């Protein structure tokens, strides 16, 4: 894979499946809609293809092996959007043609494009910042489908804040790596004890992404790019 790829220019759309488990039939059907309907080159990044996308001079964070599959996907969309740009979508069913969305961003001076965040989609950040973000959800974009320019101040800040969090948690992650794909801080394990895994559910993505999107909101476009949120598991 050419490591100088501009995925916005090439209309490349990333989908991620970072765990060892097999996809459900619903997920497979959803993935097929992405290949069939978006009109884009789809890069399906999984355990077998990930190495093709890791830039030699920019390895994945040392915390990578210890993350849950969910948090690996959270980290990886940040990594890919900074180094390659282009589109990202969760593996959820879509009927949307993405080429017009790529064109809309490419023909503007905006840094990113996404769907307007849903009122209940804002990360559960506490305090005044959380209150501000929830009141301003219409100024935010959602986490499940978007397009970015690569190497911008927005993506640089996103990756820097993500790396800083993982630096802070690295020792704990080494001691308490994820033990299942949906592991998160405090969730009850099969034996009834709270998980010692140190990352909260939204800590690696929404807690970083939504404040940054708010900061850069004047340079982000909104468009009806969201997939279906029904029956995707």
From TrEMBL:
Protein name: Uncharacterized protein
Highest taxon listed in the record's lineage: Bacteria
Gene3D superfamilies for this protein: 3.90.550.20
């Amino acid at each position: 894979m050419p490591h100088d790829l501009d995925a916005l220019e090439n209309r490349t759309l990333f989908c991620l499946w970072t765990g060892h488990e097999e996809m459900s039939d619903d997920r497979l059907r959803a993935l097929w809609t992405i290949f069939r309907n978006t009109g884009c080159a789809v890069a399906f990044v999984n355990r077998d293809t990930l190495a093709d996308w890791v830039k030699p001079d920019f390895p994945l964070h040392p915390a990578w092996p210890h993350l849950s599959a969910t948090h690996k996907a959270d980290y990886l969309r940040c990594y890919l959007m900074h180094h390659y740009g282009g589109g990202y979508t969760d593996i959820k069913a879509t009927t949307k043609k993405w080429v017009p969305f790529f064109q809309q961003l490419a023909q503007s001076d905006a840094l990113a494009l996404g769907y307007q965040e849903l009122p209940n989609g804002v990360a559960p950040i506490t305090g005044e910042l959380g209150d501000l973000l929830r009141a301003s959800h219409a100024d935010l974009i959602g986490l499940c489908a978007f397009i970015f320019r690569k190497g911008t101040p927005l993506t640089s800040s996103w990756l820097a804040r993500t790396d800083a969090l993982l630096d802070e948690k690295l020792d704990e992650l080494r001691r308490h790596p994820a033990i299942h794909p949906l592991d998160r801080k405090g969730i009850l394990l099969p034996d009834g004890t709270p998980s010692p895994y140190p990352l909260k559910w939204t800590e690696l993505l929404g807690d970083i992404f939504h404040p940054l999107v708010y900061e850069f909101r004047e340079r982000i476009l909104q468009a009806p790019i969201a997939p279906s949120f029904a029956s995707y598991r």
